[in-house]
């Protein structure tokens, strides 16, 4: 009985968070990490039809929620539509993920059609305004699911606390692959979360200030290494979260280009000390022509707001240790 008030205080102090992603393999490992962070209260998950196939993608999200003991966690599908669709080979990862052994006991409880992610986000932002508790937004897809809702209801922006976003590439090459899309559009600067909807990305970067941006510059250094996989495998004998991550990353660990893109932005929420100081800069996105989707510094004297761009780790080994330590748990 004496512990009850302390538990209540802990819940009240938690920061509400919504995770907007596109059902990539890395997104679900990130979801488990969020669930392990004691100061964040994951209020809902919104899936975008970007780097996934929407129906199996949201079905996997439902099964992951059940796996981690959150079967009633609000889940919705965004109505957002991108400008440049992700390649089908990438989007099929969510189907392969649905077949990993650890998810076999769980069945999707998503209705047909799925609940509206737009309505869910609007509701959470309104609640944030009504309670005076700003909502943290973790975004590991294009900005469209957020900008569409705010275009329809601009006042809801008052409910946003901070935004962490994986996207873009500054001093490294982008990740458009001319073997998966026509070479005539595969410019060397664009990153997929920007290229998917360059108009929404530019609008968000011009409208919001102090976005925590995690471009390919830092995610290129967050590879899925053999040592990391060996640790997950060893821990998986005891911990279900580690076993999930091992089975999930085993689907892509032999692909040299697959990095922990979305885990990188997720870990920062809880352990910012692992990251080098950000570069404060204004940003813009090329919207037309061959360089469409290129996120770059805005011209000098730009009236755009500045953003915190994280380009490197201060403690890269600590990043890997953090992930494996947080995943050393079971539902």
TrEMBL record:
Record Gene3D superfamilies: Ribonucleoside hydrolase-like (3.90.245.10)
Coiled-coil portions: none
Keywords per UniProt: Glycosidase, Hydrolase
Entry-linked InterPro entries: Inosine/uridine_hydrolase_dom, IUNH, Ribo_hydro-like
Protein name: Nucleoside hydrolase
One Pfam family cited in the UniProt record for this chain: IU_nuc_hydro
Annotated ranges, domain Inosine/uridine-preferring nucleoside hydrolase: 21-293
Gene source species: Sphingomonas agrestis
GO molecular function: hydrolase activity
PANTHER family associated with the record: INOSINE-ADENOSINE-GUANOSINE-NUCLEOSIDE HYDROLASE, INOSINE-URIDINE PREFERRING NUCLEOSIDE HYDROLASE
């Amino acid at each position: 009985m004496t512990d009850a008030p302390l538990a209540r205080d802990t819940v009240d102090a938690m920061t509400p968070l919504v995770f907007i992603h596109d059902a990539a393999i890395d997104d679900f490992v990130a979801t488990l990490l969020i669930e392990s962070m004691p100061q964040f209260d994951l209020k809902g998950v919104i899936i975008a039809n970007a780097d996934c196939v929407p129906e199996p993608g949201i079905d996997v999200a439902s099964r992951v929620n059940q796996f981690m003991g959150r079967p009633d966690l609000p889940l919705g599908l965004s109505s957002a539509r991108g400008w440049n669709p992700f390649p089908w080979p990438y989007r099929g990862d969510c189907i392969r993920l649905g077949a990993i052994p650890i998810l076999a006991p769980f069945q999707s409880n998503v209705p047909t059609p799925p609940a509206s992610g737009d309505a869910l986000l609007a509701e959470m932002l309104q609640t944030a305004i009504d309670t005076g508790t700003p909502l943290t937004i973790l975004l590991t897809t294009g900005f469209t699911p957020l900008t569409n809702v705010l275009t329809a209801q601009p006042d809801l922006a008052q409910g946003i606390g901070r935004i962490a976003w994986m996207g873009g590439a500054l001093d490294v090459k982008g990740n458009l692959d001319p073997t998966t899309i026509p070479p005539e559009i595969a410019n060397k600067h664009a990153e997929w979360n920007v290229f998917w909807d360059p108009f929404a990305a530019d609008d968000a970067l011009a409208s919001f200030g102090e976005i925590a941006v995690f471009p390919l510059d830092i995610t290129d250094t967050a590879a899925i290494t053999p040592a990391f996989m060996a640790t997950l495998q060893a821990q998986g004998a005891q911990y279900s979260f580690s076993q999930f991550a091992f089975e999930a990353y085993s689907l892509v660990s032999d692909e040299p280009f697959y990095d922990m893109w979305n885990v990188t932005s997720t870990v920062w929420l809880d352990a910012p000390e692992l990251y080098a100081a950000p570069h404060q800069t204004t940003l813009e996105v090329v919207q037309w022509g061959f360089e469409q989707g290129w996120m770059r510094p805005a011209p000098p004297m730009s009236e755009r707001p500045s953003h915190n761009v994280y380009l490197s780790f201060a403690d890269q080994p600590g990043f890997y240790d953090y992930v494996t330590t947080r995943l050393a748990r079971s539902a």
